[in-house]
Amino acid sequence: MITVVKDAKIDAIHQEEVEMLAQILALIEAEDIEAITPLFTKFLTHMQAHFTYEEGLMKEASYPMYTIHQAEHYKVLNEARYNLTLWKSSPDLWELREYFGEDFVAWIHQHIDAMDVPMIDFFEKGEA
Ligand SMILES: [Fe+2]
Ligand SMILES: [Fe+2]
Questions:
Q1: How many domains does the chain have?
Q2: Ligand with an atom nearest the CA of residue 74
Q3: What's the gap in Å between 61 CA and the centre of ligand 1?
Q4: What is the CATH number of the domain that holds 83?
Q5: Distance, CA 30 to ligand 1 centroid (Å)?
Q6: N or C, which terminus of the chain has less Cβ within 10 Å?
């Protein structure tokens, strides 16, 4: 279960992302290499829209943690892009399972708890 940040739109985005993640993990288990690439590409687009949306809200609210939060988004987007490139050049199910099933899962939970929750708190209360 992912932590609810109590913003309907952001919660829906997070929910979609964990559902896509579960689909990718299922495809990895099924060793469906053909189906993974388009879903991974779609996942990356989704991540990008997710981060752009949050960054827009942070900018609008002059959120003091904006730069740190955005830097985390950049880092994780770059990792995803790197892993997609790697996957396209030489598909390795074991590597991909490690990336999605361990690294990404751990990251998204940690990020929501440590960064998205305080961000929403700030939007609601107007203070960090
Ligand atoms: Fe988020
Ligand atoms: Fe975020």
A1: 1
A2: 2
A3: 16
A4: 1.20.120.50
A5: 28
A6: N
